[in-house]
Each structure stands twice: as C-alpha cells, then as structure tokens.
UniProtKB/TrEMBL annotation:
Family (UniProt): Belongs to the MoaD family.
Gene from which the chain derives: moaD
Record GO terms (molecular function): nucleotide binding
Keyword Nucleus among record annotations: no
InterPro entries reported in the protein's UniProt record: Beta-grasp_dom_sf, MOCS2A, Mopterin_synth/thiamin_S_b, ThiS/MoaD-like
Cellular component GO terms, alphabetical: molybdopterin adenylyltransferase complex
The protein, known as: Molybdopterin synthase sulfur carrier subunit
Protein's GO biological process: Mo-molybdopterin cofactor biosynthetic process
Species of origin: Sedimenticola selenatireducens
Alphabetical UniProt keywords: Nucleotide-binding
Pfam families: ThiS
Length: 84
C-alpha cells in the first residue's frame, strides 16, 4: 500500500486529506502516482494537470516526479508555499 497525503489547497479542492493506493509496479514513481490520480478526471485533472505546480515528498523527503515509490511508502502532495 502507498499512503497518499494531500495538504493545504489540495486537501480542500480534492475534499480529502489522505487515501491509500494498492502498490503496483506501474506506479513506481511519484510521477506515475500523479498520472494515476489525474486519470480520475474532474477536480483531480484540475489539481494535477499540465501547468499546475504541485510539490511532492516521499517519506517526508522533498523529491521530484522521478523519485521512486515503494510498497509501504508515504507520498505527500502540497502546493508551493510563498512567504512574506
């Protein structure tokens, strides 16, 4: 299983804070997880679609979309944060 977490605006737009996905070799990278979520269409396509900036972390370590994902990992998604 992969534990997927959504933070801030993503949590609000997707109306969920977390979910679990069954691990499969086809979703062995963060980018593949994003592609799977995007396939749901609707708001999922809006949040994870082309031109949208979403940051990711695997097991609480910032990463890019090529980062590997293994069974039992936690993958978190959140919008970019600006300070002031």
């Amino acid at each position: 299983m992969i534990n997927v977490l959504f933070f801030a605006r993503l949590r609000e737009e997707l109306k969920t804070a977390s979910e679990t996905l069954d691990y499969a070799p086809e979703i062995a990278t963060v980018g593949a997880v994003v592609a799977l979520l995007r396939l749901r269409g609707g708001v999922w396509q809006d949040v994870f679609g082309d031109g949208q900036t979403v940051l990711a972390a695997v097991n609480q370590e910032m990463c890019d979309m090529d980062a590997p994902v293994s069974d039992g990992d936690e993958v978190a998604f959140f919008p970019p944060v600006t300070g002031g």
